Amino acid sequence: MSYNTPATAKAITGVEPTQELLNEAQAIIHNYTDYRWEVTTATDTFSSKDYRTFFGQGKLVRALPSDDASILLPRSELSIFLKMPVVAISSFTIDSVSQTEGTDYELREDIGELRITAFAFIGSSSLTGVDDISITYTYGWTSAQDTFPLVQGVEARLALLLKMNPLNLPTISLQGDTVNYGDAMTGLLSRVPKQFGLRAIPK
Predict the structure, then answer these.
(1) What local confidence, expressed as pLDDT, does residue 164 receive?
(2) Mean pLDDT, residues 122-135 taken together
(3) What is the b/e burial string over 36-59, where b = at least 16 CB atoms within 10 angstroms of the residue's CB?
(4) Where are the domains of the chain?
(5) Sheet with 78-81, side-by-side order of all strands
(6) What is the distance between the alpha carbons of residues 47 and 130, in angstroms, rounded to a whole number?
(7) Helix residue spans in 6-93 (DSSP H)
(8) What backbone torsions phi and psi does residue 104 show, to the nearest 5 degrees?
């Protein structure tokens, strides 16, 4: 369900959209950002074969698409970052074996960090698992989060753009006046909070 009702969207824009347009506007926002302003369930999978360790070096090597990056880390721990903020983990298995919070892993809900403290296959000679790490969890903020009114306003305005331009044309010309809808939608989406990624550049 969208972040607005037709009534709240009308209070923001002065025009009442249909619920279907609000749902589509929310889908556009969700396509733009991984953040959610409602509790959402997700299942993320990882492959143990992507993680290797060399005995005696104390290095964890994470295979990247184009190269390898060696990071000095404790050999017995590994952090996996989930969508944030995490509300609760309902299922966490490695090779179908359930993991226990406080014994096998620690969780930092605010940043979505799941730190595996009993990472059994570090040092194993048979790291061949594909999608054998599975984590099902809920995440997302509520309407009390301080950016919710901004996102709610963007959703209402996106629904208005969709209402005014049902064919989703990039530009419309009327009697010599041109309206650029593509720039308007891009400008609205740029206001929505979005996660950013960092990647280490080897020397």
Answers:
(1) 87
(2) 68
(3) bbeeeeeeeebebeebbbeeeeee
(4) 6-37+143-189, 40-139
(5) 78-81, 113-116, 105-108
(6) 4
(7) 6-13, 19-32
(8) -100, -25
